[in-house]
Amino acid sequence: MDVPSDPYAAPAAAGTAGESAGIPLRRLLLAVGDPLVDVLAAPAGLDVRVDNVVIVDPEDEAEAFAGDLVLLIGARGSAARHLVRAAARRGAAAVAVKVHSDEPAYPPPQGWGTAPQVRRGGDEVALLRAEASEAGVALLGVRPEVRWDQLQSLCRSVLDDARLTSEADLGETAGDLYSLAQTISALTGGLVTIEDSASRVLAHSSGEEADELRRLSVLGRRGPEQYLALLREWGVFSRLRAGEEVVRIDEHPQLGIRRRLAVGIHAGSQPLGTIWVQEGAQPLAEDAEQALLGAARMTALHLVRHRTEATVGLRLRDDLLASLLEGRIEAAALADTIEVTTDRPALVAAFAISPSGAPGAGGRTDPARGGGTDRSGRELNRRRLVDLITVHTAAYRRTSLVTAVGGRIYVLMPDLVRGGGSGGSGGSDSPTDSSRRSAESSVLALTRKTVEAARATLGVAVQGAVGSPVDSLAAIPDSRAEADRILDAMGRDLAMDVATMSDVRTQVLISETLAYLRGTPALRDPRVSALADHDAAQGSDLVVSLLAYLEEFGDVRTAAARLHIHPNTLRYRVRRAESVSGIDLSDPTQRLFTHLQLLMERAT
Asked: What domain of life is recorded for the organism (predicted)?
């Protein structure tokens, strides 16, 4: 038997251009995997690509085509071997059969179980392995109790999800359900399972301390009936179907059930499923219930995407939202895609992962928080950040919209002020300045909370900026541009994590001025450069002393105290700076430009 010694090894050379469709078999197995399927043979490794799933019986073997995962039903012995070879001849990527084996399957991929599975009936498996290895097709063993239609449906849902995201940047989508489950786990501090309305497990987070209910649900891909009956008896499911209520389930040690939170997933009045959060060794997070509410609203979009043609609409919505933020389309173009009122006040909040070495909260530098990672690490952080932001903003406001453009993540907060348009007549329908300030303050608090959650749960430094409210969606590019200006200043000179333009307008303007001066060498004053060169050569402190003097508006005593030197020492240094540079500090225009140049020198 020519069984490959390492079926999980990647192929030595890249595939052809035609292999761009579908997903690697490895990825499908990680999503479907143990305990449903074992890898029995993989002569070409697990990077062969699968783009369809078909069920074939002995009477219609011609249904298999190139790239298919073929599920062989009703075939045993020589018939199964014949079909395996026929499927391989037609280019099938893999063949799945129901077998019993007393031989261990190959070790599972990383993150998919910890030990090989043992089956009964070794002779049958040995013959099928030999056939598959000789034919060059992957062979999967399916547990006898697994229903073929369920396995086909699960595999197709994974493939459909992959097709929707294969051409997208990682930051352009909120990610798949497994990524979302991990994000919810980080926010709540518990073990998360996402189930559909039939209690089938769609995704789950990683983690230890699983109780019996979670263990059986994950292994069986469905909640065990004896436990489901108890939950129905306790009225849990009726409460979950009733609406947006986070339901608490007390611990029942005698039943193997730890404390849980659960929330129903709804599309309008239609229940789509449930998110369960099991408490582990540590108590759940203080704000776990609020995070769970936002997660349910976000998860509803994913489940609708899998059930209907809304997938195309979601991608279109993201594209239209990005175009609106960039000012490339009219707000009216979103009317059929995004259910918001276009003539009410709105604003944009923007988030970005801090660059390596960027100032953190309070101006401190912590390279471990935001940078120092490779590209794949940055992309992963960005994807998780999209999930986290979407969960938080959905909990705050159902109509909030999140999209990623370039390296930043934007949140559109529409309908800030209810009860009327933007009119300027001062009538009863006009939003007041105080209501706008209140809405802006609420969004600012949400932004701070989101940034803190990113630091605590993702381990990355994130900066957030809130643009000013605008009268309608037609002016939303102005709010987005303002948020971008704040983030730009944070990346250059501004030692803050969260801000609005009203908080930091002067600092932003100075930062933009200094950025322009840095980029325009002709505007550099050689006299200030000479002063900096003198400090470097002589080890003196003329630049810092003169800058302190100018920042304190010529108040020698205050500036000297700030520098921890005697006032006479500062007076000497200021006179010396004038002598070395030739700058006349009695001239207000020279003082102004010198001050800007010194700020630029300090920043560089």
From this structure: Bacteria
d(CA 433, CA 424): 11
| Token pair for 547 | 């800058």
The answer to pTM > 0.85 is no
412: buried, middle or exposed (CB in 10 Å: 19+, 13-18, 0-12)?
buried
Q: What span, in angstroms and rounded, lies between the C-alpha atoms of 75 and 56?
A: 9
Which pair of tokens denotes residue 385?
A: 């950040």
Q: Average pLDDT of 429-454?
A: 80
Average pLDDT rounded to a whole number, residues 28-34: 66
Task: Note the Cα 587 to chain centre separation in Å.
Answer: 54
**3-state secondary structure (DSSP) of residue 491:** helix
The secondary structure element, H or E, covering residue 405 is: strand 401-405
Nearest-angstrom CA–CA distance, 412 and 470: 11
pLDDT at 437 over 90: no
Higher-confidence residue: 16 or 181? 181
**How would you class 344 by CB atoms within 10 Å of its CB: exposed for 0-12, middle for 13-18, buried for 19 or more?**
buried
- Please answer whether residues 92 and 64 qualify as being in contact, where contact means their C-beta atoms are separated by less than 8 angstroms: yes
290 Cβ contact list (under 8 Å, min separation 6): 395
Q: Under a CB-based contact definition with an 8 Å cutoff, are residues 468 and 504 in contact?
A: no
Structure tokens that stand for 150 in this block: 């369920």
Structure tokens at 482: 């303002």
